[in-house]
Structure formats: C-alpha cells, structure tokens
Amino acid sequence: MQDNTIASVDFGSSSIRLCVAEYTNGALKVMGVFEKPSHGIKNGIIKNFEEASSSLRQVLNDVELSLYFTPKKVSLGLNLSAYKEYGMLSHFKCGIHVDELLKTIINDGVQFKDFIKLVNVNGIEVDHIYPLPLTSLSVVTDEKSRRDGVILVDIGSDSTSTVSVLDNKLVSRDSIPFGGKSITSDIAYILQKNTNYSKALKEEYGASYEALVKDDEMIKLVQHNENILFSRKEFARIISSRVNEILTEVKKSVDSFPRCGSYSNVLLIGGSSLLLGITKIAKDIFLLPSHIGFPMYAEGLSREYINPKFVNVLGVLKTISTRFEVR
Ligand SMILES: Nc1ncnc2c1ncn2[C@@H]1O[C@H](COP(=O)(O)OP(=O)(O)OP(=O)(O)O)[C@@H](O)[C@H]1O
Ligand SMILES: [Mg+2]
Fold first, then answer.
1. Domains plus CATH for the chain?
2. Rounded to 5 degrees, what are φ and ψ at 303?
3. What pLDDT is recorded for position 285?
C-alpha cells in the first residue's frame, strides 16, 4: 500500500462498509467502496467474533480482487450505540467545537479490544477509532450549517444514533436501540412473514408517510404459494407508526440536552432514511426543515455511493484525511 493511501471501515449491524482512498496534495481520491452483509455484530457490539471476522474477511477479499492490495491500516467508525453500551458517551463533551473534539479523540483500546483484534487477525492495524455519526457531519454539512445548528440522525439497522450541533459545538449525542430492524420485525409480526421476506418488502414498497400513498395502491404478497393483494397504505401505516416512535424518542433525547439557540434543520442518514416520506415525518416531529443527507462528491466516488448508507464510511475517511494533513 502506498504511504498516501487511507482506509476506513464502518462496522454496521447489517453491513460492513470499507472505503480506500488516496490523499495527495490536500485532495482525496476514492479508489473503491466495498460492502458486505455484516454478521456477528448486534447493536454496534461484536456478539460473535468468528462471524464478524468472516464478514470483514469477505470485504477484504473484494478489496484485494479489485485493487490488488489490502490496506495495512484502517480507521474504524463505531456506532454511538457501542460507546453507550460501554458507558463512554461522556467522552464526547458537549459544548466543544466539533473539529476540536475529533482531533482529541483517543482510541479506547481497552473497551474496543474486540474490534481491534478483529481487524488485527485479518492482518491489518487499527489507526483511529471514531464515533458514528459524529465524523459524518463533515460529509453532509458545511461550516455554515453546523454554525446555524443541525440535528444529524443515523437510522441504521439495530439502532438510531444522533448528534446535534449548534454554533459548531456539540450539543447532544445519543443512541437508541431501534432502527430498520424494528420496522422489519413489525412487518414480519403483523403480516406473519419471515424476516428476509419482510425486509425485502419494506425496501421495495415501504413508505413511512401514509399520505404519499394512493388509497387504491396494492402490493403483492405471497401467501401459501399464491399472490394476494395487500393495501400499500395499510403497509405504510405499519411502518409509519414505528418511524414516528423512533423519531419521537430521538427528539426527546435531543431536547433533554441544554442548548442556547435553535436548530435550523434535521438531516437523516443510514439505510432506513431511504424509506419514502421519512423526511415528512421528521419535519412534523422536529418542526424543522428535514432532508436526507447525501455525501458530498469526492473525486473517484461513483454515483451509486452518493447514498445515505455510505455517509458514515466516507465521513471517517474525510476525518482521517484531515489528520493526514497535519502529520
Ligand atoms: N430502500 C430502503 N428502504 C427502506 N429501508 C432500507 C432500504 N435500504 C436499506 N434499508 C434498511 O436500512 C437498514 C440498514 O441500514 P444501515 O446499512 O445504515 O445499517 P447498519 O449501519 O448496518 O446498522 P447500525 O448502524 O444499526 O449498526 C436495514 O434495516 C435495511 O432494511
Ligand atoms: Mg450504521
């Protein structure tokens, strides 16, 4: 690996994503983005080491096949849910400028020794470890919007993690153990279908804002080897009730942190932010303009990765490049 090559990994509960880039003359050039299903990680924590290691190995195989090398060093993005589980949320002091906070983040090799071991057994060293989605602010917001105040909500699979910033300073950070998986479980329970089928239905026809779905729209469900029709509005009702619950919890948590001033907008990232109409629910709950956070363009980044699912892995990459600058 060239000295100017950097790599980041987002250890999600449903996917592991890895990004490799070159950093030359102050500019990032993405060499590849890789993704594989993640096994053995629950709510941001390693529950089955062998499964998690095999998932990482599969991503690394893709890297090797595509780039003809594997990175020697990677920086990790770990969900705030993992920091919460280990009682480490207080490491991120509210009231501190976000850039300063990211510069002073120290690796907690003790708490995250499993993740470090997971990377090491695959022949790679761990550079830095960052909390997600704190590092993601840099790829979905600019300095002005961080000054004006933004709530960044990462709705993943097992959890929803949120950071909020006003005047460029951290105001709140928290994680709740509900995300896309809870929505899938509701669908599976109500429709009496298995998890994989329910997840696929959600991703294809899911809507979280009923008013966006026409009254007569129907979706096809397979029942005892036959196709039956089910109201898409009814389907959206199942989803919207859980999404409402998740975002209401998030708002309660954000509001529980003292702040001077008001936020200007809400940004949603993570796979579940792809649900049709989710920004409308966020707008109703937070009473603020709400948008999906798409990663800013970086050289070499294909269009398929300009997607809220890839914001976290790109955010870690951008953060390391900032450190690279000062080396
Ligand atoms: N098009 C889509 N519509 C609705 N939901 C989607 C879509 N695509 C992915 N999802 C959901 O997004 C979730 C995965 O999101 P993401 O990849 O951000 O999670 P993760 O980072 O692996 O998990 P976590 O952050 O909780 O550890 C899954 O529940 C998946 O069903
Ligand atoms: Mg995630």
1. 5-178+244-326 (3.30.420.40)
2. -55, -35
3. 98
Cα–Cα distance list, 2 to 21, 69, 75, 236 (Å) = 10, 10, 16, 49
Check residue 296 and report its DSSP letter: P
Cβ–ligand 1 distance for 198 under 6 Å, the answer no
Residues of the chain where predicted confidence (pLDDT) is lower than 50:
1, 326-327
Q: Per the confidence metrics, is the pTM higher than 0.90?
A: yes
Going by alpha carbons, the residue nearest to atom 9 of ligand 1 is 271
Helix residue spans in the chain (DSSP H): 49-67, 80-85, 98-104, 113-120, 137-140, 143-148, 180-191, 195-205, 232-255, 278-286, 311-326
From residue 67, give the alpha-carbon distance in Å to each of 6, 34, 108: 13, 11, 30
Amino acid (one-letter) located at 206: G
Both tokens of 243, joined, read 């999404």
- Looking at residue 106, its pLDDT comes to 64
Strand partners, 169: 97, 166
Nearest C-alpha to atom 25 of ligand 1 is from which residue? Answer: 156
Cβ of 42 closer than 6 Å to ligand 1, yes or no, is: no
- The answer, yes or no, to whether any atom of ligand 1 lies below 6 A from the CB of 271, is yes
159 lines ligand 1 (CB under 6 A): yes
